[in-house]
Amino acid sequence: MEKYIYLKNTTDYSKLKVAGEIIKQGGLVLFPTETVYGLGANGLDEDAVKKIYIAKGRKQDNPLILHVSNFDMVSKIAKDISDIEYTLMKTFWPGPFTIILNRTKIVPDIVTAGLDTVGVRMPSGEIARALISYAEVPIAAPSANISGRPSGTNVSDIFEELSGKVDYIVDGGECEVGLESTVVRVVDGVPTILRPGKISPEDIQKVIGVVKIDEHILKNIEPDEKVLSPGMKYRHYAPKSQCLLIYSEDNEKMVKKIQEISKEYTNPLVISCIENAKYYEVNHKIIYGAKENLNEIAQNIFKDLRKVDSFHPDIVIIEGVKNQGIGLAIMNRLIRACEYHYIKI
Ligand code: AMP
Ligand code: MG
User: Contact 96/181 with Cβ under 8 angstroms?
Assistant: First the structure.
């Protein structure tokens, strides 16, 4: 049985020393960040990182992000950093922002899936940063969930999935953002978003003046297509039930379409904003937040996706959101949760 510690509402992180030791010794620690929970191991220890892939059932060609607590760690694992890359790190760190940098030889191949680049992030979550400081090494940490499942945003959602597979659980309550970090690679001087998150294209545009959104973020990927980030290819965030995403800028149209489609099923479940829930005469409803509060929807969406299977619905219909700010990240996750079953009107 793994050790467990609850660290909510405290500023005394000295208890994380033990968890830091476990990381140093090659163990696995489940810990909160401001985005989602991470499944962490010493990012410079090949054998420790191997345990992450096994615990998650993650494909070996899907690289991991290294989490750092200071810039000294960055200079050990990355090289040839450009001015634009520095500006991005200085602006968005600590925070939900990952940058893809040229890696040094110290980073094991298993972390980068053999690529000559490495994803690096300095989280703003205090527990995460304290843990990295105690471990004194960059921590490799993908989202804490079995591959393909929604990422864990609180311990009780993922306890069954990961208990027995880790050495230590650090419980910090609910994650603040609820979606994984924005992943950016600077290509020919242009920051290119490979995975959208809380740090939005608009935020990056303001600082650098240009930004590109990778075309694969909202579209399906063909089996042999070459992508800049291996994680884009995989089935993700999906409940077992069949899901359908519907969106229109015209709220009335969207509601009408969802009403129509839900009538074709015997046990439909609708996930919607609080304002629209009253319009749906369906067996099951889940409310993901207020329509205009995209931060709230982001924080709830993985938790809500984890609830749906217990209702055994024959269809899950999900209201989409506008593609602005963190809305792009919400839509990116929902489109994958629905395995590209998406109707835009
Ligand atoms: P997760 O660990 O679940 O948060 O996923 C990490 C994401 O970062 C995946 O989508 C990876 O494909 C992506 N990633 C990590 N390292 C790299 C890299 N060196 N180049 C491109 N994408 C990366
Ligand atoms: Mg993940």
Answer: yes
| Residues with C-beta less than 6 Å from any ligand 1 atom | 62-65, 100, 112, 115, 117-119, 142-143, 180, 183, 194-195, 229-231
Q: Classify domain 3-178 by CATH architecture.
A: Alpha-Beta Complex (3.90)
pLDDT at 64: 98
Best residue among 229, 232, 234, 333 to mutate for probing ligand 1's pocket (most ligand atoms within 8 Å of CB) is 229
Atom index in ligand 1 nearest the CA of residue 141 equals 2
Ligand 2 centre and the CA of 276: distance in Å? 30
> CA-to-CA distance for 134 and 149, rounded, in angstroms?
30
pLDDT at 236: 79
CATH, domain range 243-344:
3.40.50.11030
Q: What is the mean pLDDT of each run of 10 residues along the chain (345 residues)?
A: 90 94 98 98 98 96 97 98 98 98 98 97 98 98 95 96 96 97 98 97 98 89 77 81 96 98 97 98 97 98 96 97 96 94 93
Pair of tokens at residue 200: 């939005």
Cα angle 341, 175, 291 (rounded to 5 degrees) comes to 50
Query: Which residues in the chain are classed under CATH 3.90.870.10?
Result: 3-178
| C-alpha–C-alpha distance, residues 304 and 54, integer Å | 26
Parts of the chain belonging to CATH 3.40.50.11030: 243-344
* Strand partners for 103: 78
- What integer pLDDT is reported at residue 337 of this predicted model? 93
User: How close is the Cα of 111 to the center of ligand 2, in Å?
Assistant: 14
Best of 36, 183, 233, 336 to mutate for ligand 1, by most ligand atoms within 8 A of CB?
183
Cα of 143 vs centre of ligand 2, distance in Å, is 4
pTM for this predicted structure: 0.96
- Helices and strands (H and E) in the chain: how many: 11, 17
